[in-house]
């Protein structure tokens, strides 16, 4: 994801902008640039492909000195990752930086070209620069021109602009991509992430959806999308909120479980249009590559493998695209037949998982049509070596047992499914618009699931003296059951297995007795009645049931049966929601067992050796 930094002050802001970009390097990028209204009264910029250090070296050789400036790290969506396409983009004395994707950039480009504007890049962002300049000719101010400009943009954006016409003003707009204003004394700042501004302030104002803002040295004004002036709350940042600090939580794992609404929201930002996924979020070549895809091969390890298994149900059930999922350590050591036009998809939290990385390198010589990485680390080897990437934006995950990385991987895989289906025209009519709407609501649903924290903690007491547990699920909930079993065994050291519920009578039923609890996930879908029959088989053998069931599933507590009512959610997104209580269950069982929750024995966070 791209990064934005802006500043207006009495001092030279160039070092502030560069330091801000450095603090955003973890997000991943392919080029960097900066533009300043110089003390000489000119608008100048420096841009470099590659690392921020390259831009920093350029500014040492050719210094830019000024009190107003914007800077950017770019992750290519339109146009190749080179200096010509790097931000900021200019138009007749003004400069723009932009995160996100403008869906209607092509008709806007055609209109602007017919009016005499000359485009120097392949980006959608340059459209904003020329459009803003055009509107400034008739507007009374830069902020007024920005309001007219953004009303013509379709898509997702967080953007900032400066102009020689108003050398004391920085303007910004947010729609689907985050922006935060940093407040100083006689100076103010802007960024896409507060982390970029921590060296200059601890006071922040978060812009909300549709806001536009005018930032000057001693004044900040914000307007809603409708043009109404509004005051946004100023929040003071405290050191205890650092990702490396547990804050109010007993363990990092619990903190990271509770961060899931926020990080899922962050993963969605800039990737959803009005009624569809923005395909270019996967990279500038994604639309053309996705058009060619006829099959998908997913390769991953551990928790990421379970995410891939869920994606198989989505790809085949929603997009009609055949999908194979394989453990990376198996894939790399066997002879594989690659169907024609197969996309090779890798999933990894760290992007340095040895088996997954080796599988990608092995796959490059096997005739795949292209490669896509779903990853949480923008500067990892997996990202650098893949053709396309979707960064999951989960932030640092300290606990060894993956939680928020898993749910953001699922979100990324749903975006991939919808993007592929959209490009190929294989989605059922209206399904993409429906799922985009439901994805926007997903953070709220996750918050509702987390509100059951104390209920799940009570349920965990049933497992305190147990040594074995069976997890059941049907359809896309089977991989969720597998993930639940993995979490329980990872951190509580209880032996746990997962099965498709329909397989119960084909062997596992022999294990069921009063000493082996059975955990089941039961959304209200077409398989619910069959699942109920499976649960009756468990009770008939004296097994103790814990059922996480849709509030409308008509399941209730009884002898040997504990039902936890889950918020209703559309069936396609149920695997993401039902993951949360299983994470909480494994956590509270581990706490009761007295294990080292964040650093379970024998395990490492990133498996970088074979």
Written account of the structure:
The chain is an alpha/beta fold. The chain is 34% helix and 23% strand. The protein has 18 helices and 25 strands. The strands form 4 sheets. It has an 8-stranded antiparallel sheet, with helices on one face. A 7-stranded antiparallel sheet has the order 5-6-7-8-12-13-14, covered by helices on one side. Strands 17-16-18-19-20 form a 5-stranded parallel sheet, with helices on both faces. Helix 9 links the parallel strand 16 and strand 17. Helix 9 packs parallel to helix 13 and helix 14 packs parallel to helix 18. 56% of the residues are buried. The model has no long low-confidence stretch (mean pLDDT 90).
Radius of gyration: 25 Å
- Compute the number of helices: 18
How confident overall, as mean pLDDT? 90
Strands in their spatial order, largest beta sheet: 3-2-4-1-10-9-11-15
User: How many angstroms does the end-to-end distance come to?
Assistant: 30 Å
Helix/strand/pairing category: alpha/beta
Shape: elongated
Number of strands: 25
**Fraction of residues in helix:** 25-40%
What share of residues are in beta strands?
A: 15-25%
The residue ranges in which pLDDT falls below 50 over 5 or more consecutive positions are none
Largest sheet: 8 strands, antiparallel
Question: What labels would you give this structure?
Answer:
18 helices; alpha/beta; 610 residues; seven-stranded antiparallel β-sheet; 25 strands
